[in-house]
Structure to design on (863 residues):
């Protein structure tokens, strides 16, 4: 049996690729290392709590009125999920100034509020919103392999090689306003002085026009829907199938740890290119190696999942998202994020948006600390368990202090994921939660325009480490976009 | 050249300046590579604890590629993988050694189970130097300094004492800042495992105390009868964490007692290590297992789990905890009626016909999908 496509990894990217291919009547096999699909986007149960591992903010989905790309795509796949729109509901603390503020409501509210404090800013932000629309359309065109017209897309070309911070400064937007617009940099994983203006505008466009949502049910429910649809259309998926070797010949041979072999005409990896060429393909590809050695792996981190035995109202956790930064200036803040116990983190309280997130009178709190370095490097392996608990303890204390709440005495369940946990489960290089870091010449825009040049015959990449980066919308869309190109090529 | 071409060239030019040799591992990649799900060990020592219980000291089997043992938290278990007459099976045993002295090896303690498949072989046939295959340490049971209170009450029934010895070492070494009182219930004095170590802790470690009670005899130095409210009361403080390891019957009586002390649910944690189930009548059904490239048909009895039925038929079904918690054996039921006893299954999986074969009994012929 020779499959048309063998997909390695049943993460969101791999499942989306598989679905698009079986919809187009291809013979597809997905090989997944774990006993469950989902990869980094999963759910685990502990006591009476079910914790979603990630996906607390799903961008580019929208609602009935503002239909995002993700929603359009899922409609195409005939996948029906229940979602809830999240209005801005964040509390942000800047440690260096001890200032605290809330972001609530819609983007328009934010613009009006900023306009009140900084005269003349409203017009500039409106201009920015207009540019974001044009840039988003330009990126969309590139994704379907069309070149945006130079006359029609003047702004797209004007800003093509600029980083986000430089352009915002050039537009004379006050520093304080830039800082408020940049709090999402932690969601993207790159500070504004590294992020391309194109990537930033593409993100802003989603944020403003395609409301972000949360799932009403757990991540695994969504994953099961994708798998069921894929199987119903004839797709095959094997679990407990860790790929350990790829022989890249005309007909590709994929070997799994259990000694089985599969043959396919084409391979799609829901894995980092770096991992595949480092650990799975024995042949040497000098150009790939050069590029991979040049790129920066995205940040890793520690995620603490807490099941608390009181309602969020009783605990006083009334915001969906909590951020603490040392400074809102992202380029400066990132420099503080290179040691085990630093002061920048995000907290999520899913119950605030979704009352079914955990049983009645309980709350889930997820705290995430992100590292832009190999911070575990100087630690001893035998201290690992102690370090893990110390990080959790420190992070919870910081959260309690920053937002004047009591958490520790209400902890019923605790689970701590470290970069080691993440790499062991997903093979994500260095336990990265963002794929590669978007910086300099390696933002999405660069990956998209160089896609054809960098293609290795017969092997493609989807997921967080591919074209668009991390995030539910990006990974699902990468699976769709890459397979569409392949289907077109074959015609 | 267009602006897009310029941008492409810039990326190419930067890449050119880097080495085309091997892609380097990052720090975490390097650690993960040494980190195996399976560990090969040798029996370094066998200690006769009581007339039906032996402890085994396990050290790395370097000839087979295990250079050092994986670290563990007090309360965790390893799963022993055994081939017996061509059949494959696993058993989970809590570690009772000191987590901070991993260089001295793991210690597991095995009590003879009448007609038990693994325990009898381990107790009668195994000798020093023999090799074994085990999993890495697993499980969530134990003290967690972030979650738990400083006053810790341990409740141990029979061989449920093992994780508490490990915890006592951890507290003794100052790794856990808590006061630990363990109530240890056995039938007679002769059934006490780790007697010397317990005496050591009681004498030398201020933060650890073992209180022993005998249920079937009366002897000086021991309490008499099952663990009850009066025994525990003097040790209850304003805030407590209770850790329990033993038979289900013990948990049931203890929960009633703990209710009287108003100890909230969040402060009580159990190690599950037994599945009790007896069907009304014994029947034999057919079990069809769909594997990746093959299928197998075997018989399964109403009084044994689907996992045991598969193991008896020589199918290498994955398993670790064998009590429906770890999720390692998860598979999909395609047809048939089954009864799953307890377990910890995510709602979305339950709705999609996932089961834990380790705690599932057949009530008709069954078709199971198992990706091995």
């Amino acid at each position: 049996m020779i499959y048309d496509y063998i997909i390695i990894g049943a993460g969101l990217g791999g499942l989306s690729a598989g679905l698009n291919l079986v919809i187009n009547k291809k013979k597809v096999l997905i090989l997944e290392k774990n006993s469950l699909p989902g990869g980094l986007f999963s759910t685990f149960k502990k006591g009476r709590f079910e914790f979603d591992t990630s996906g607390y903010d799903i961008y580019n989905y929208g609602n009935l009125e503002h239909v995002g790309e993700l929603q359009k795509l899922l409609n195409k796949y005939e996948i029906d999920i229940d979602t809830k729109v999240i209005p801005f509901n964040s509390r942000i603390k800047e440690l260096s100034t001890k200032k605290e503020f809330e972001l609530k409501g819609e983007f328009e509210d934010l613009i009006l509020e900023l306009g009140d404090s900084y005269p003349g800013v409203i017009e500039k932000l409106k201009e920015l919103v207009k540019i974001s629309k044009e840039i988003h359309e330009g990126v969309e065109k590139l994704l379907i392999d069309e070149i945006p017209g130079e006359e029609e897309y003047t702004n797209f070309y004007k800003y093509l090689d600029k980083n986000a911070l430089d352009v915002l400064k050039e537009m004379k937007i006050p520093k304080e306003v830039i800082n408020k617009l940049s709090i999402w940099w932690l969601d993207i994983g790159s500070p504004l002085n590294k992020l391309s203006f194109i990537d930033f505008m593409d993100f802003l466009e989603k944020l403003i026009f395609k409301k972000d949502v949360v799932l009403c049910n757990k991540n695994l429910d969504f994953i099961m829907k994708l798998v069921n649809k894929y199987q119903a259309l004839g797709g095959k998926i094997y679990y407990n199938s860790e790929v350990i070797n790829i022989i890249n010949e005309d007909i590709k041979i994929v070997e799994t740890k259990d000694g089985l072999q599969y043959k396919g005409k084409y391979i799609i990896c829901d894995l980092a290119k770096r991992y595949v060429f480092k650990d799975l393909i024995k042949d040497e590809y000098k150009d790939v190696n050069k590029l991979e050695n040049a790129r920066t792996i995205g940040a890793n981190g520690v995620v603490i999942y807490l099941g608390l035995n009181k309602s969020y109202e009783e605990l006083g956790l009334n915001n969906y998202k909590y951020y603490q930064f040392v400074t809102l200036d992202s380029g400066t803040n990132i420099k503080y994020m290179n040691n085990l116990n630093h002061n920048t983190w995000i907290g999520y309280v899913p119950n605030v948006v979704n009352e079914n997130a955990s049983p009645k009178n309980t709350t889930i709190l997820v705290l995430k600390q992100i590292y832009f370095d190999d911070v575990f490097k100087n630690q001893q392996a035998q201290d690992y368990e102690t370090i893990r608990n110390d990080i959790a303890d420190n992070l919870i204390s910081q959260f309690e202090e920053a937002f004047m709440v009591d958490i520790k005495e209400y902890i019923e369940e605790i689970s701590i994921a470290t970069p080691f946990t993440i790499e062991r489960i997903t093979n994500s290089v260095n336990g990265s939660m963002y794929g590669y870091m978007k910086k300099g010449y390696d933002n999405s825009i660069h990956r998209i325009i160089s896609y054809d040049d960098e293609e290795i015959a017969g092997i493609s990449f989807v997921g967080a480490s591919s074209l668009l980066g991390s995030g539910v919308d990006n990974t699902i869309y990468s699976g769709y976009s890459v397979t569409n190109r392949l289907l077109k090529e074959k015609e | 050249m267009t602006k897009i071409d310029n941008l492409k060239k810039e990326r190419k030019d930067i890449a050119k300046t880097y080495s085309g040799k091997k892609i380097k591992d990052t720090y975490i990649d390097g650690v993960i590579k040494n980190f195996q799900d399976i560990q090969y060990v040798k029996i370094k020592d066998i200690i006769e604890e009581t007339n039906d219980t032996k402890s085994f000291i396990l050290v790395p089997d370097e000839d087979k590629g295990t250079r050092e043992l994986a670290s563990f938290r007090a309360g965790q278990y390893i799963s022993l993988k055994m081939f017996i007459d061509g059949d494959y099976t696993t058993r989970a045993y809590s570690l009772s050694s000191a987590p901070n002295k991993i260089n001295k090896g793991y210690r597991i303690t095995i009590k003879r189970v009448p007609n038990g498949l693994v325990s009898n072989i381990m107790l009668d046939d195994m000798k020093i130097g023999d090799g074994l295959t085990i999993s890495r340490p697993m499980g969530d049971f134990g003290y967690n300094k972030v979650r738990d209170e400083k006053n810790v009450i341990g409740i141990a029934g029979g061989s449920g004492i093992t994780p508490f010895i490990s915890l006592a070492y951890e507290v003794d070494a100052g790794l856990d800042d808590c006061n630990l009182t363990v109530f240890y219930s056995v039938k007679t004095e002769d059934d006490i495992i780790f007697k010397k170590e317990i005496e050591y802790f009681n004498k030398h470690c201020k933060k650890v105390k073992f209180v022993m009670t005998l249920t079937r005899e009366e002897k000086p130095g021991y309490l008499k009868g099952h663990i009850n409210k009066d025994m525990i009361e003097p040790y209850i403080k304003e805030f407590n964490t209770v850790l329990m390891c033993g038979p289900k019957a013990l948990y049931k009586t203890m929960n009633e007692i703990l209710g009287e002390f108003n100890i909230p649910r969040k402060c009580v944690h159990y190690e599950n290590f037994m599945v009790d189930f007896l069907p009304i009548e014994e029947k034999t059904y057919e079990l069809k297992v769909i594997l990746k490239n093959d299928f197998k048909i075997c018989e399964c009895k109403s009084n044994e789990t689907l996992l045991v039925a598969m193991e008896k038929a020589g199918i290498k079904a994955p398993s670790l905890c064998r009590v429906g918690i770890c999720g390692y054996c998860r598979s999909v039921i395609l047809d048939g009626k089954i009864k799953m006893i307890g377990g910890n299954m995510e709602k979305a999986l339950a709705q999609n016909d996932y089961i834990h074969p380790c705690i599932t009994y057949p009530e008709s012929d069954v078709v199971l999908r198992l990706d091995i």
Observations:
- Residues 3-16 of chain B form the longest helix (14 residues).
- Chain B is about 20% helix and 30% strand.
- The mean pLDDT of chain B is 93.
- The first strand of chain B starts at residue 38 and ends at 50.
